[in-house]
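Lab meeting, action items carried over

1. Structure of the two-component assembly. Owner: GW. Status: complete.
Input record:
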Amino acid sequence: AQRVTQPEKLLSVFKGAPVELKCNYSYSGSPELFWYVQYSRQRLQLLLRHISRESIKGFTADLNKGETSFHLKKPFAQEEDSAMYYCALSGKGTGANNLFFGTGTRLTVIP
Amino acid sequence: GAGVSQSPRYKVAKRGQDVALRCDPISGHVSLFWYQQALGQGPEFLTYFQNEAQLDKSGLPSDRFFAERPEGSVSTLKIQRTQQEDSAVYLCASSLGPGDEQYFGPGTRLTVT
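Predicted assembly:
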């Protein structure tokens, strides 16, 4: 069975400080991993996916298969990064590509 | 064009009532997903359509939940005899194809009293 764990419900950092949002997963096959973000009063939107290996808004995430982790990192947090972040996985080859989400981490960047 | 839209945005139902939630996906998107998000939780998968075919309904919590997409565009999620535990935000997402980026709607917040 698939499982996504985000151990921190809340995370506060000062502006300009590095930030890391943790995500661990369990899945018997070869998953695809995602980070979704929800800014205040906005809808859920894709931030990045591991297969694209892009850096979006200064965020990066590396898939570590040995540790089954997909932590989200940014070297210098900005106030506009304050939002709810969800880690999600999708099982490759299942056809449906439905997403399994973690419980989310609310990031607050303190000015 | 416009993104995914959902209506109503808010719905209050008395326990035992039936409700219908509507999703208008992005035009041309083949894949459509429904998720349920309880307070303090992440979204949980309910069901998936490819065009008008419901290919996966493994996440529907009970037979009181029913979804359809008869013409492969608009979808309706129906909940019969609502219970308090059905209170949640119901999210709809669409994607161009099965493996493509999912675009989410604003959600419908259902409160069962």
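2. GW to write a short summary for the group page. Key points so far: The two ends of chain B are 37 Å apart (CA to CA). The mean pLDDT of chain B is 95.
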